[in-house]
Design goal:
This protein is of the alpha+beta class and about 375 residues long. It folds into two domains: about 5-30 and about 85-185, no CATH class; about 45-80 and about 190-380, Nucleoside Triphosphate Pyrophosphohydrolase (Alpha-Beta Complex). The chain has helices at about 5-10, 35-45, 100-105, 105-110, 145, 155-165, 170-175, 180, 245-255, 275-280, 310-320, 340-345, 355-370, and strands at about 50-55, 55-65, 75, 80-90, 120-130, 135-140, 190-200, 205-215, 225, 230, 285-295, 300-310, 330-335, 375-380. Strands 1, 2, 3, 7, 8, 9, 10, 11, 12, 13 and 14 form an eleven-stranded mixed β-sheet that branches. A three-stranded mixed β-sheet has the order 4-6-5. A hairpin with a 4-residue loop joins β5 (about 120-130) and β6 (about 135-140). The longest helix has 16 residues, at about 355-370. The protein is globular, with a radius of gyration of 20 Å.
């Protein structure tokens, strides 16, 4: 049996033989992130959303990032990350959704496309953030169980915007109100770690890599994002705590910026020279959690991180080794002082929303540290 069909049968209660790819007049629509903002803010409340200004423009993002969960300065690799994992796995209850809707929303996965995968992920149960500390409690879940339930809210919204259909039965079943959206324990609240990297050069400018997501991934194809970014999940981590956001960040740095091999069994990333240098030169960098946020689109959590390396030796030594990963359509290397380019990019519509928060909060922190200036970011 097709494993996707088997998972859908288990999650929604329909016989496998009834879950078939529908004949559609056109390819499934992709989500217009900008167009999804208004309906999400209307449902969950604009006062809950993250916003920032750039020059005279104001942008509101459908991401919950309360005042006490942004503008953070949690130092990483210092013991400030307090994490615990509940070892018992979680099996979600059946989701009520009409069969025709299920097959429509999941059509690209039923057809064997869409870059979907399956492995254990850290499921958020509790979170507490302060300016200089972070405490998180995780459970375990499966990526497939997330992607085929709350993860399908992305496809549902895409269909609704493309067809003008006001009904959102999957959202009504899973995340109907703000209480369910912020109630982590009642679902597989999967999520990840996103890092804005900034590398100083010999002239004192910082080079900041960004990416446009490729078409072979399960979420966010064609959208702008920071790099690295990845789901928070258990993996071999040597002497590091696998549940710490900093561990995922370093592993993704190795894989997505330096072309390292993805593996859950061997902590290869720890012996990579660039990662080893970061761990041994804390005095030459700032590695911090800058925000914690929750997506209004599908309820995902994300830790926003900044990795700012101030010693130009790192850029001179390791920039020739930077590689574009299979998850990216293209990489863009932004210079910290290019105001016109930043204006165009930060106000562009096609961003992964939580990546935009990570980018803005990282630039905010770099400004506070006195490492960059001249970017006219504004906050309430």
């Amino acid at each position: 049996m097709n494993p996707i069909v088997g998972a859908l049968s288990r999650l929604y209660g329909y016989p496998p033989e009834e879950i078939v790819r529908p004949k559609l007049p056109s390819p499934p629509p992709t989500l217009d992130m900008e167009a999804s903002t208004a309906p999400l803010l209307a449902r969950y409340g604009i006062d809950q959303a993250y916003s920032f200004g750039y020059e005279q423009r104001r942008r509101t993002v459908p991401v919950i990032c309360s005042p006490h969960a942004q503008d953070l300065r949690v130092p990483l690799l210092t013991g400030a990350e307090e994490v615990a994992v509940e070892p018992l796995p979680y099996s979600p209850p059946p989701v009520p959704l009409p069969l025709n809707r299920l097959c429509r929303y999941a059509t690209k996965f039923i057809g064997g496309r869409g870059g979907i995968w399956d492995d254990e992920v850290y499921r958020l149960l509790e979170i507490e953030t302060g300016r200089m500390h972070l405490r998180a409690h995780f459970g375990l879940g499966r990526f497939l169980d997330y992607r085929l339930t709350t993860g399908l809210l992305r496809e549902e919204m895409a269909w609704a915007l493309a067809t003008g259909d006001p009904q959102l039965p999957l959202r009504e079943a899973l995340l109907p109100t703000l209480a369910e959206l912020t109630g982590f324990a009642g679902r597989i609240t999967a999520g990840g770690v996103q890092t804005l990297c900034a590398f100083a050069d010999a002239e004192g400018f910082y080079w900041i890599p960004l990416q446009k997501r490729g078409n072979s991934i399960a979420e966010g194809a064609g959208n702008w994002a920071v790099v690295p970014m990845g789901f928070h999940q258990p993996a071999a981590s040597g002497d590091l705590d696998p549940a710490a956001p900093s561990t995922t960040a370093l592993r993704e740095l190795y894989e997505e910026l330096f072309g390292g091999t993805e593996t859950a069994r061997e902590p290869e990333f720890l012996s990579y020279p660039a990662v080893d240098w970061i761990r041994k030169h804390s005095h030459s960098l700032d590695f911090e959690v800058t925000a914690f946020n929750l997506s209004m689109l599908h309820g995902n959590y994300d830790f926003s991180l900044l990795l700012a390396i101030h010693d130009p030796w790192f850029w001179e030594s390791f920039s020739p080794e930077l590689r574009q990963s299979w998850e990216s359509e293209s990489h863009l290397m932004m210079r910290s002082d290019d105001r016109d380019a930043w204006r165009e990019l930060l106000l562009a519509p096609n961003w992964e929303t939580q990546a935009l928060v990570t980018c803005v909060e990282g630039l905010r922190r770099l400004t506070q540290l006195g490492r960059i200036d001249g970017l006219p970011l504004k906050f309430d």
